[in-house]
Design brief:
Layout lengths: L3 E7 L6 E5 L5 E7 L2 H13 L3 E4 L5 E4 L2 H10 L1 H15 L17 H24 L9 E5 L2 E5 L4 H7 L1
Parallel strand pairs: 1-3
Antiparallel strand pairs: 2-3, 4-5, 6-7
Helix pairs in contact: 1-3, 1-4, 4-5
């Protein structure tokens, strides 16, 4: 694995993360689209609120994963659909998830929101790190891109490598 790597965010126009090696430099970069983690936060809140709380046989509160209950909750609460669409459209259409209307999750849902958000963020980070572990940056299929005034090599999307990095 590379000894020197840097993490950062960058407005690339791709809802993605990317691992790249900068020519004539000892650093490998792990870059994440500016707003990607804000998007993960908004989507986590929207998705978490689609679940219904219920009491189990031990009288403890748990989330129902019944497809019918989730569908009923979404169809009876148009705000859930709006929040999901607002986050998605703000990022994909306007280019910034922070254009979406901000709101706080119901306090009962905060543990679920945190779990979903952390899972998304860790997956994206782990996926890009997976490219390093699998030595994908040494591939002969390199493509040169410019980030500002700096040229960098990236590997064009190869689905086999994407699955391997996962």
């Amino acid at each position: 694995l590379p000894q020197n790597y840097l993490f950062g965010t960058l407005p690339t126009g791709m809802v993605n993360g990317i691992a790249l090696k900068v020519p004539d430099c000892s650093y490998t970069l792990l870059l994440f689209e500016d707003g990607l983690f804000g998007f993960a936060n908004l989507m986590s809140k929207a998705v978490a609120h689609a679940f219904q709380f219920q009491k189990n046989v031990d009288d403890k509160v748990e989330l129902s994963v019944s497809a019918d209950e989730i569908e009923n909750k979404i169809s009876s609460n148009p705000d859930l659909t709006f929040r999901f669409f607002d986050a998605l459209a703000s990022y994909l259409v306007k280019g910034d998830p922070h254009f979406a209307e901000q709101y706080y999750p119901d306090s009962n849902y905060e543990p679920v929101v945190s779990c979903l958000r952390n899972s998304m963020e860790i997956f994206v980070l782990g996926h890009e790190y997976g490219h390093l572990i699998c030595n994908h940056l040494s591939s002969k299929l390199k493509k040169t891109i410019c980030i500002g005034d700096i040229e960098a090599s990236i590997i064009p999307t190869a689905w086999e490598q994407e699955f391997e990095a996962d």
